Every structure is written in C-alpha cells, then in structure tokens.
Amino acid sequence: MKNKLLIILLAFCGVTSCQNVLDIAPSGRMSLDEIFTDDATTSAYLNSCYLNFPKWANFNSTSTNMRIALTDDAWDWYGNPAVPSNKMYIGSATSTNPILENEDNRNDNTDDVMGFWNKCWQNIRRCNVFLSRVATAKVTLESDRNRWTAEAKALRAFYNFELIIRYGGMPIVTSPLGLDYDYKQLKRESFKACVDNIIKDCNEALATPEFPWRISAGNEAYRFTKAIAAAIKSSAILFAASDLWNGGQNHWAEAETNTKKSLDDCLANGYELYNKVNNPSIFQSAYQEYFCSVTDWSATPVDKETILASTYANNDWIQFHGLPIQVAYKSGLCPSQELVDAYGMQASGQPILKLDKPYLDEAHLQPNYNPGSGYNPVNPYVGRDPRFYATIYYNGARRKNSAGVLTDIQTYYGGNCGINVNVRARTITGYYSKKYDHPSATISARIAATYRIMRLAELYLNYAEAANENGNLAGAIAAVNVVRTRAGMPNINPASKDEARLLIHNERRVELAYEENRYFDLRRWTKPDADLSATDRYLTGMWIIKTGNALDYKRFSIGDSWNTATGSWSNTATPRACYTNKYLIWPIQLVESRRLEAASGKKWQNPGW
Q: 415, exposed or middle or buried, with CB in 10 Å at 0-12, 13-18, 19+?
C-alpha cells in the first residue's frame, strides 16, 4: 500500500524517487537533514526551485511558440502534419496526446518529455520542502534566511499561477505531502481560492525588507524579486475577475486595488517604461529597440522596464521566423491580417475598424471600417501606429538582406519575399514577424534578444482594465495613455465604460503582440459556456498582385491562393478546428487524471477532454 501511495505521490508532484528528497551538493549526495545544516547547501536547495524553469520564445525547425501560433495574431504552418501547431489547427489534441503541455515548456531545444504539469508540481514541491525547513536551517545571516524565504514564496506563487491559468483551479498544497497522506482529502479548489493563496504568498514576499526589488548584479541574474511578486499578484487577480474564472462573482474592486498597488510599488522602486532610443541609427523607436536588446543587470540599468526575462536569449528568430532575403529556414509565425488591422492610425489615434464589430462576415473578409480613422485601403501601410512598424514586415518595408544591402521587402506574389502557401520559407499570410529581429542581424552573424515575460507596460494595462471594469474610467484612460505616449500615439478619450473596454482590449493586443499574453487574454475574456469561434476559427491574410506599378490588395482566407489565369481562389483555406469550448482550458494528461481520480475518488479532467 505504501508503494502504491508513493507512485501516486510522485505522479502528482512530478518528481522521481531520487529527486524527491535528495539534491546534489559539492560534498556528494546528502539527505535533507544534512542539506539544511549549511548556508551553501541550503542556498543550493533554493536554487533547485528554479530547475526546469519554463522557457519562453523557444523555436527550432519544427516547433514554435504555441501561445502565439494559436491566437488570431499569427498562423504557423508550412504543410507538415507533424508540426505541433498544425496538429492543433486540425483539432487532433487529446488528453493522451497533450500537444500543448509538452510544447509549452521546451528546454534546451529538445522535447520536454515531462511536460508542463509535472515540472510545475515538481517545483512547487521543492518550494514547499524549502519553506518547511528554512526556518530551522543553520544559516549564518538572518537577512539571507528572510530573503530566501520570500524568494521561495514568490516562486511558489509563480508556479501555482502558471498552472491555474492553463488547467483551472488546482489543489492548494503548501507543505510536502508525506507517504501517509490521505488522498481522499485532495480536491480542486476554486480559481479564486487559488488566487487568494497566490496573493498571500506574494504579499508575504513583498513585506520582507531583505527581498530586493531589482537584481543589480550579473551573478544573481534571473533570481526572483519583489517586482516579480507584484506582477504575479497583478495578473492573478485580473484573471480571477475575468469572465472565464470569476465564478459569476464580481471581483473588479479587489482587482483595481491590487493592480494599482502593484503598479505604484514598481514605479516607486525604479521601474519605468523604456522611453529612449539609444541607437537611433539602427532603431526607429524605443519600442523596437527594447525588443531587440538584452536585459542588463546593474544598479543603473538601461532597461528599467523588464520585470522578468527569460533565461533564454533568443537568436534563432531570424532563422526560424525570418525572411527569404535573409535565407531563413522558414517564415514561422506569420502575422495575420487581423493583427495588422488592430494597429490604428497615428495621426488620428483611432482604430481603422469598428472595434465592436470589426468584420461584417464570419470569415473576416469584409472589414467594417471606421470612417474617422484616416485609413486608406489602397495605401494600407501608411501612417499606422509606430508599433506596427516595429512588429511586422509588410510589402514595402525595408531590411538588409544576407549580403548586408538594404532591400525593399516584396510580399506580393512573385516578389523577393512573395507569398506562397506551399513553401515553408515563404509567408502564408502576406506578412513576416519583426518584433525580435535585430536590424543588423544575419543568419551567419546573429544577435540575441531577451524575451520579456513580465514588464511594466503590462502592469499599466492590467490596472487600466481593472479600473475600467470597476467604474473608474478616468484612472483607466490615464494608465492606457501612458503606454500610448511611449509608443508615439495620441491619447484615447472614450466616452463610456463599454467603449473603453474595447480600446483597452485592443491596446493590450497591440502593445503586447507576440508576447504570449493574447492566448490567455482571449480565453479569460470568454464566458465558460462560450467558445473562440469569433477570433480563432477564421483568419485572413493579404494577397497582393502586382501589375506594372499597380498593386491590388486582396484579403483572403489563409490557405487559399489566387489563380491569376481563372481570376478565382483555390478554395483550399483551412479554418482552425481548435476553437471549441474545450480549448479554453488545457487537458490534464489522461494517465495523471486517472491516477488522481483513483486516489481521491473525485473528477479531475477538464470539460470536453
């Protein structure tokens, strides 16, 4: 019976028998009792709580960032049915084949066979072990003990948050589960109860004087800080108040209070938007430069906006999400026409489409234009939001080719980067992604960029959304306009809460494009009994035909191609199948859900799976 319980315990917590209570230390294998008798080994055990930390923006020849590819912002497909994103598009994910889980936490460019669920639970257990021991551990400096305790609580909050936004409410486990644990006590708590527990951990970490707001030395790079705890707290309560997770309750007053406190605390402790272009000969805007840079660790950093950065400095973008003139292996995450349509006009500050009903048809082929924006469909890429030019390569944009020669990008059919739905190195939408592409990088001389996981602009937008939903229109508008000012866009001035909501949602899409937020935003904004058909089922691109010097812009369903001879579409478009209700929440792997159900006698699997 003990052996059976051990198997269940390890399956749930995602650990192996040697990782459960042992850690490698300089003197060899040590028991927990031995580990917590020394500063160095106690600190080393805390470091183990960072093992297998989720890796954002990991790309290689077959994989992509699924949380971008599965939104209405991009399409990643080049005809290979084995590519994980294509498996999702055709709706082949099952609880026995959890494509999302294994793709979501890839490490070192290899398939992560353990999966996201296991690794989060593994690190929650490590945090629990550390917190159960650190109070009595032999530590030389009490300041270290206090800092490490706060750090472990912030880490535990992070892993719990990452679990619940994917799988829904989880058990609240705050101590290591022993072999005598009665699993019939184990149950899934409500989303709000989980968030309350996460906020409790964050608040305790934030109340610790020895826990720093920023890492200022390279030898401590990527350690957690108070700013990370504040950001987790801000996002967690925003999710708890949103339609998918609020359980029919109104939590917006609490969300406004917490998001405001998190934002104000970060601002008071040296965080600010990246506002200055340091290399104007290379970059057109501070926004563009920020996403092509590497986070620096110092007491006076150039980058004061980043709160949490990926440990993986990505230099693969140019190869796996690049341009034919750079001889990229594949075009990768091609921006959709829907994302392009989200960027407003700089002069008027207005969106180009009516946000309450952007398209007149289900397939998004008939745009519902906002007549006051100043947008011209015949010159579609002129005068747009500066963030558009920092994020998307379009027909007429410029980029150095592989020989270092500044070249016009031609996305029209037959152009040097022309659209071709059958070739992996060619765009399938009429656009290429740009956000993390350093203008001076080449395939042979790549330049790494840090992938930002949490940053101050998101905290401004979290507060704006919560304030608006709680009836504080003035506070919401002020927060959004800070972000727009950095971008070089005019202020918004909505007349109502409903109008502000549309503008705030669109601002999140534009400001946070290609940062994984929209995947979860679309889901949390969706009611539990609804689906994603309005956003994730039909996506479009721009097919451009050049005749002489004239350009004919044709919106088309992704997957179609234009036959010039017949003057008609191929009708080979492929609407996505991963838009139904069950795709709002991830499945628990079948083997895990069955073990948990057998042990606890309760239902664990998410609806539809």
A: middle
- Domain assignment of residue 116, given as a range: 2-227+583-600
The pair phi, psi for residue 107, each rounded to 5°, is: -135, 135
3-class state of residue 367 by DSSP: strand
Mean residue pLDDT of the chain comes to 90
Bridge partners, 542 (sequence order): 555
What integer is the mean pLDDT of 41-62? 80
**What single-letter amino acid sits at 407?**
T
The DSSP line for 295-350 is ---SSS-S--SEEEEEEEEE--HHHHS--GGGT-S---SEEPHHHHHH--BTTT--
3-class secondary structure per residue, 182-232: CHHHCCCCCHHHHHHHHHHHHHHHHCCCCCCCCCCCHHHCCCCCHHHHHHH
Q: Which helix (H) or strand (E) holds 453?
A: strand 449-455
Residue 185 sits in a domain whose CATH number is 1.25.40.390
Q: What is the pLDDT of residues 563-589, one digit of tens each?
A: 999 999 999 998 999 999 999 999 999
What is the domain count for the chain?
A: 1
Say if CB 490 and CB 279 are below 8 A apart. Answer: no
Distance (Å, whole) CA 590 – CA 94:
9
**What is the pTM for the complete model shown?**
0.93
24-to-48, 148, 307, 577 alpha-carbon distances in Å: 9, 19, 30, 46
- Tell me whether residue 45 is in a domain: yes
Residue 254 belongs to some domain of the structure = no
- Coil/strand/helix, residue 393: strand
Question: Tokens 């960027």 correspond to what residue?
Answer: 343
Burial of 250 (0-12, 13-18, 19+ CB in 10 A): exposed
The beta-strand segments (E) located in 90-158 are none
pLDDT at 210: 98
- Is position 282 within any domain? no
pLDDT band at 62, cuts 50/70/90? low
